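Explain this fold:

***
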Amino acid sequence: MTTTAGSPGGLRARLVEAGRGGYRRLQTYLIVALQAGLAAALAWVVAREVLGNPEPTFAPAAAVAVIAASLGRRAHRALELVAGVVLGIGAGDLLIGLFGTGPWQTGVIVFLAIAAAVLVRGTGALMTQAGGTAVLIATLTPSAPDLEWPRTINALVGGAAGLLVMLVLLPINPLRTVRRAAEPALDLFAREMTASAQALAEADTGRAQATLERMRAADPTLKRLTEVANAADEVVRFSPVRWRRRRAIAAYRGGVTHMQRAFRNSRGLVRRIGTTLRDQEPVPADLPAAVEHLGQAVRLLNREFLAGQEPVQARARVLRAVREAGGACRQGLGFSGTIVVSQLRTAANDLLRATGVPHDEARRLVREAAAD
């Protein structure tokens, strides 16, 4: 008996999956919460107790802003934060000295600060800091003179505290973090390939469409994997305690990029499976077998990836999928079925690259397997 989306069983399955997703996100991002708390406390102590700043609020806020930046962009975010404060102060000082303070002066100051950030090709974070600082300078200068220097010091303290915590005191474990993020992405990839193979074997157009919709909705999972891979790369480049992991993370980083390409090419494959079924094109038994073997290759890659092993089994299963697809071609396919095979070969090439096979070698292996 099938379980419908609105049935108690379907609701329970969705709740279980949501719970698993939440737990995985917590595993990935709990370290961020710890880093933010430590950086905020450290920034406050340095600004208030060491430097004697009676209003240290912006220092912990700046530290949290650095930590809360997109993973893999934190060092850049710290520089943007300080640069934005300096731009805002510069614009504020310039116009207040010329025109005084007031509503129109505030508007002009903010305009100039953000325009300056745009001219130096700043991102939204830089523009936000420049504009926000300009507002504070324009509105608080009459009641709180000499605001510029403490805010600049606070920005420096907060940015430095965030970087110190992120890179020295409490850096992420790059290998463990990447593996945790990769596991759900690879698991999802493998499941949808199996579902696609079943849809193709059973001529179930509805299942093929549902699989395609789930794969389209998987972009947040891929985005999270990209963020985590970038964060790991940033840590091993800048953190002295993680330098020895540089080579391993470089390999994983390249693997993540190719795995994402394989997923997106497989999404095109699933779309063409739906067209093949709607047009009632011939479907030799080797074609769903090839798609299933591609899913099994992803499962093996996940297992070997998490175990830190050379993905030999995953490579062998990828090439088996290509051979099965070649057999389906020789048995006769329609137009869309031929495109399914082409997309499968492209995804297979990407998966081989994800396992560390060089570009030319991957192309050669796929070409030879297709001809077997």
Remarks:
- DSSP finds 14 helices and no strands in the chain.
- The longest helix spans residues 8-50.
- Residues 1-5 have pLDDT under 50 and may be disordered.
- The chain has two domains: 25-169, 174-371.
